[in-house]
Structure formats: structure tokens, C-alpha cells
Design goal:
about 30% strand, DNA/RNA-binding protein Alba-like domain-containing protein, 4 strands, four-stranded mixed sheet, DNA/RNA-bd_Alba-like, Alba-like_dom_sf
């Protein structure tokens, strides 16, 4: 039993699965602004966010990054493109798919922009009542 416990304790998980600030973007499941707002929250929590997308979702990832940059929330730290092999089912022939990873960091005035946005929401909510 000790050998099993020791083996479990020594298992090392790759850094790929440990990234807490990574968002896997899909262009079918959620709206563009869901990912924009989620990215802002991740940047608040972790100071940076990594956006990833496969195939047709690549344009969505780029759009999210551009919205955040153009509105002054984020700066580009790293962009990586690669090809990954995907299989539809076990034993099937691998199909190459394009993948993009964009690492964004907070701008110097990120916190001010977030505070102004929260104030605007609060003020806007009072106006409607």
C-alpha cells in the first residue's frame, strides 16, 4: 500500500493541464463578449490570461484579444501558432488542426478601467429604476 501512495505522490502533471489562467475558446458554445468579460476577470485574478482556440475558433480568439487591447485592458505578451493532431475516435487517423495561443497581460491602467466600468454599470442601473 505504501508503494501505491508513494507512486501517487510522485506523479507529475504537465504544466499544460495546470494552467489556471487559460481559456479554451469555442465559437459555438458562448458569445464573444462572454469570453471578453471572462478574460477581464482572469486578468484581475492572475494578472494575465492565455486564450487558446482550435480551427474555426482562431478568429474568435483574435477578436477577443483585439477587443481587450483596443479598449486598453490588455497588452500582448506572446502569440503562438501550431498544428496539433486530433482524432475523431481512438485508432482513427490523426487530422491536423491549427491552434493559436495568445498570452495577454494587464495594462498599467487596467484597474482604473475596471473601476470605471463597474461605476458605469452601477450608475446605469440606478438610472433605469
Amino acid at each position: 500500500m505504501e508503494g501505491i501512495t508513494e507512486g501517487v505522490n510522485n506523479i507529475s502533471i504537465s504544466s499544460e493541464s495546470q494552467k489556471k489562467n487559460r481559456i479554451q475558446v469555442s465559437n459555438t458554445k458562448k458569445s464573444l463578449f462572454f469570453y471578453v468579460n471572462l478574460s477581464k476577470r482572469y486578468m484581475q485574478q492572475y494578472n494575465e490570461v492565455e486564450l487558446c482556440g482550435l480551427g474555426m475558433a482562431i478568429s474568435t480568439v483574435v477578436s477577443i484579444a483585439e477587443i481587450l487591447k483596443n479598449n486598453g485592458f490588455a497588452v500582448e505578451k506572446k502569440i503562438r501558432t501550431l498544428t496539433v493532431d486530433m482524432r475523431d475516435e481512438p485508432g482513427a487517423r490523426p487530422i491536423p488542426k491549427a491552434k493559436i495561443e495568445i498570452l495577454l497581460g494587464k495594462t498599467e491602467n487596467f484597474d482604473e478601467l475596471m473601476a470605471a466600468e463597474a461605476e458605469e454599470r452601477e450608475y446605469g442601473g440606478e438610472e433605469q429604476n
